[in-house]
Amino acid sequence: MLETILEMQHITKSFPGVKALDDVHFDLKSGEIHALMGENGAGKSTFIKIITGVHRPDSGDLLLDGKPVDINGPLDAQARGIAAIYQHVTCFPDLSVAENIFMGHEKVVSAAKRIDWRAMNQAAAELLSQLDANFDCRAVMGTLSVAQQQIVEIAKALSTNARIIIMDEPTAPLSSRECEDLYRITEGLKQKGVGVIFISHRFEDMYRLADRVTVFRDGKYINSWNVKEVDEHALVLAMVGREIVQFFPKRDTAPGEEIFRVEGLSRTGFFKDVSFSVRKGEILALTGLVGAGRTEVCEAVYGVTPYDSGTITLGGKDLQHTAVSKSIACGIGYLPEDRLKQGLVLRWEIAKNISLSALEKFIRNGWIDRDKENSTAGELAEKLKVKAVSVHDKVSTLSGGNQQKVIVAKLLTADMKVIILDEPTKGVDVGAKTAIYTIMNDLVAMGYGIIMVSSEMPEVLGMSNRIVVMRDGRVTAEFETKNATQEKILRAAMRE
Ligand SMILES: Nc1ncnc2c1ncn2[C@@H]1O[C@H](COP(=O)(O)OP(=O)(O)OP(=O)(O)O)[C@@H](O)[C@H]1O
Ligand SMILES: [Mg+2]
Q1: Which residue from 15, 52, 436 has its CB within 8 A of the most atoms of ligand 1, so it is best to mutate?
Q2: Which of 296, 362, 387, 496 has the fewest CB neighbours in a 10 Å radius?
Q3: How far is the CA of 60 from the centre of ligand 1 (A)?
Q4: Ligand nearest 387 Cα, by number?
Q5: How far is the CA of 39 from the centre of ligand 2 (A)?
Q6: Does ligand 1 come within 6 angstroms of the Cβ of 46?
Q7: How far apart are alpha carbons 378 and 396 in whole angstroms?
Q8: Nearest ligand to the C-alpha of residue 38?
Q9: Which of 155, 165, 54 is nearest to 99 (CA)?
């Protein structure tokens, strides 16, 4: 029998206007990986922040090793052996890896009270080698990939001798190979007797890693299962609270004439001779493994980054562009993959964020028509099921997935001909996925052409008309979706 290290009972937490957690309970054993799942805004991150002392519960008990404790802030949580890797990396980008690992518990030469760099770097190097890291402890944090930064966060957790490690959607920004590394590291933590709480919207993560899974819905505890004894259908039902009959909504539009073409696009070191086209009312899926160069191609097409040769034509006209402003003026829209870095003004309300990309539509007699702004924002927020008290809520108070929905809504207010969506449903829950698919169908029915970058096979097969596969910066295959299979796509995506 594994022993229970953490128990949470009757936890309740309200923010102005929402009960984020309503009498939930949870327990974690040492040497266990316990997955926590639920829709966007279900209360998962809030729950984690109570364990790590960021938030205080309004009521309820937290027991460590069977004893009730009060956690007085993050440092107290750290001292009690609790560590978290948050949904959005929270490092100090200008400091070194070692400094990040030992931030707050630096190693000092006791006599002189100064930082003992040698000891710190040595200890950091040791932790990194335990985790098989392929970078140096003196590297500057900001130069590392997100996956590497996560490894630093885990090293930091180990440096504080954490017995409870919480990971909030760690796999969302990772490639499949990086996920494998994280799985291995997480398994290693479990072998050491650490208890891990793992939050993810991906079923694959849960089946690969977790021993148990608990579902929250609308701030309430729904149920817990041994992962071996529960199937995906039962979990979706628990999370969403109703049957999802049609995950990929049906579309009746047939594609029309070609409106957008990329021909022989190359950028040395990134991609070579990439060609594809999109028709009106068509969804073209651009797929491949993470790192195949899809995002780089989209950035070049949109004018974020330059390209060396090739042509981009919209409605038969050569765009010859390398500027985002020109793309927008021509009617090309772009939903970037890295959504939090671009796009949202966190301290602004939802409505203002949504209208920002098409302000001219909301201007009347030189003033912003707030009523129109609010009603447009309200409609889109409702369509996408943004969980908020009202469109006047600050974006910073929304859950991670709901912030993403606001970015999608923002894109939809502008008038576009072609929209590039880079991983449009990453980080959003199952119910919201279907809502986003429905909106994509509405857009193609209006004659938009959509380029959807996606690594999720069911989404690629379920939503597109045609599929272009990339590998190592080149196009390796193109299929009509009706002739495509997962196996054919994977074969084209992987190196033989
Ligand atoms: N600081 C805050 N102020 C006001 N409301 C908040 C705050 N933090 C969270 N909330 C609200 O609490 C609810 C739960 O949010 P939480 O971030 O815990 O969701 P989540 O389950 O982590 O969702 P996701 O999967 O999208 O990350 C949401 O309605 C959110 O808007
Ligand atoms: Mg969250």
Answers
A1: 15
A2: 496
A3: 19
A4: 1
A5: 9
A6: yes
A7: 18
A8: 1
A9: 155
**CB within 8 A of 112, min separation 6: which ones?**
none
- pTM assigned to the model: 0.77
| Dihedral (Cα; 430, 15, 198, 227), 10-degree rounding | -60
* Rounded distance from Cα 88 to ligand 1 centre (Å): 14
Determine if ligand 1 sits within 6 Å of the CB of residue 20: yes
Question: Closest ligand to 41 CA?
Answer: 1
Residue tagged 């995950």 (tokens) = 247
Tokens of 470: 């990339």
